[in-house]
Amino acid sequence: MKKLITERDVENSINSGSKVIVAGKDSIITPLAADLIRKHKLTIIEKEVHDYSSSSSTVKFPFKKIAVGSDHTGFKVKNLLIKLLTEKGYQVYDQGTFDEKSCDYPDFAESVAEKVQQKGTDCGIVIDATGIPSAITANKVEGIRAVTCYNEFSAKSSRSHNDSNVLVLGARTLGEETIKSIIDVWLNTAFEGGRHQRRLDKIHGIEKKYRG
Length: 212
Hints:
Elements: E1 4-5, H1 7-15, E2 20-23, E3 28-29, H2 31-39, E4 43-46, E5 65-70, H3 75-87, E6 91-94, H4 105-117, E7 123-128, H5 133-138, E8 146-148, H6 152-160, E9 166-170, H7 176-187, H8 195-209
Helix pairs in contact: 1-2, 6-7
């Protein structure tokens, strides 16, 4: 299994005083991690790295069908992502908007969240200006765990720890390459379960408590 080196890994090395990044031959260095490596003039050392995780060879990622939506600010990025995801073999459902005329983000965030909730798709991706308002909207739908991610580490953590099922990104706060990288990490990170499931159960309990 290829090792993913994120900006968090680089930050940990910097904070520990190390000037090197150890990477296997097949390691993938994310764009943000590469930027940090260049900025701090770190040295990359190639080393044979083995992953002895008992589950690494058996994990199956659940996402095959994806609902994608945006408001007018995310329209261009949405179309780019639909093309990219389709080429990678995902079944993509376009929930709108379908042009760049000014529109209201709640309509499309709700549409994506509803599609996921009703199990019409495995997950959803929403794009607006900052990634914040659509996440607020989507989280009003029961069972939706929408997250605004801004780098690979937040994307990875939101899946492995929080089992997020809707990813929300900001078209005006992130570059296209960073958005692609975040989506790739998010779609290819499995939920770890264990203690994290206990915490999700508590969140679900709160959701039920305040249900109208």
